[in-house]
Amino acid sequence: ELKVEQNPLFLSMQEGKNYTIYCNYSTTSDRLYWYRQDPGKSLESLFVLLSNGAVKQEGRLMASLDTKARLSTLHITAAVHDLSATYFCAPRGGFGNEKLTFGTGTRLTIIP
Amino acid sequence: GAVVSQHPSWVICKSGTSVKIECRSLDFQATTMFWYRQFPKQSLMLMATSNEGSKATYEQGVEKDKFLINHASLTLSTLTVTSAHPEDSSFYICSARGGGRRVEQFFGPGTRLTVL
What residues of A are in contact with residue B93 (Cβ under 8 Å)? Predict the structure, then answer.
């Protein structure tokens, strides 16, 4: 059974600072997704990482995937208030298995 | 981009009644749809996977007789919560995936169910 842990669970940081959210998963997976969720809303897709060593960047967010270490990171650069949200990683179950297992989530609060 | 809608957005019902939630892919054909449940301040838990024209596959611990899923067409899946009870109150989110090389699941806006 695939287990997914995110660290930290809660993060409060000042605007302008950098920080990294970590996503560890327990069994082999070849694809990993990052999502953002605002309170009371559904999920917004941020990144899909398709291979070992994949790195994707969009604005102040950058995601990477190390399939050998079973680790993905979401790096926030020079945080701004509108990045406040809950972030989830979700590796898929394996080749041909489209089920996603969601991490615990990281609730990020950016303080002005 | 791909758009998935859910209806209703929120519903309040009395204990013992049944509630139907619709999930539609608006601009693509969804060969597979997924139903998730999210309790407050928790992560998403997959309930079931449905493929068009076949029976849904339920995750362990999810009662298939309580949560009826129908995927009658390539653009519509429904989740019916039968004989709802207060512990079924939750945020229900569907996602849809197209066939072939399309890798992403596209998520609906969610349905908030409150059972009194």
Answer: 42-43
